Amino acid sequence: MIEQFLQHLTYEKRVSPHTLVAYRKDLEQFVAYLEKTYQLKDPTQADFRMIRGWAVSLVEADLHHRSVNRKLATLRSFFGYLLRIKAVSISPMQRVSALKTDKPLPQFVEEKNLQMLFEQVEFGADFEGLRDRLVMELLYGTGMRLAELLALQDSDVNFYEQTLKVLGKRNKERVIPIYKGLTDLVKVYQQARNEAFPSQAAAKLILTNKGEPAYAGLIQRTVKKYLTYVTSLQKRSPHILRHTYATHLLNNGADLNSIKDLLGHSSLAATQVYTHNTIEKLKKIYKQAHPKA
Fold it and tell me: Other CB atoms closer than 10 Å to residue 232's CB: what's the count?
């Protein structure tokens, strides 16, 4: 039944490979818990007490509440699917609530720090240096996700319109405007890439030093390396640059609906979290500037 559910996610829901791996891992962990604790091999026979027991065991193993809630969300989707195909008559998740969590504000890099990165840090003029700079500028200049960056092809760049076509979650396409300096950088990078690997047709825009399509680990290491030069944030990931993109847009006057479309969010609720950063900034300015603050 689990495999059938995963097939449903793949071909009907069209979830990303990363999401599919997470769902599979969550369900396998749940089944392992049922077998060990209740000698139950069929997850469709689990009741709400067993699911609550699993959640408690995860918390006792020091798993963060947000991570536990994500696993519970997997079960909620799984049993929702079972209901639709009438494999169960009632979902045990109806009696399982999500754990309470504090909502942390998205972390971001200050504008002056990123300005220093692009103006003062030496990337190098060879293929690797140009690629690394392009990776950083694309992530910060468009707010795209890591998976979206890895999927980029040369044909996705429209030099005349100065736009970038991005394939987002659930295969939803969106078009993002980019600045002229970024389109110029793409051209310079492409020339260096084609000279470095003349016999290989570039299926993807971003390649490794061996001329192969870039992979997640390479991009993550690249971002961490260069953000280390300009920020003390503990988390220095591609997603931090996505948060930074959205926060800087908001701080400089962009409206939430526009940011929502640029990020590819399905609802405004996902975008509103960035307003909290702006409010905190205004509070800080108020305390520093107002005589009675």
Answer: 8
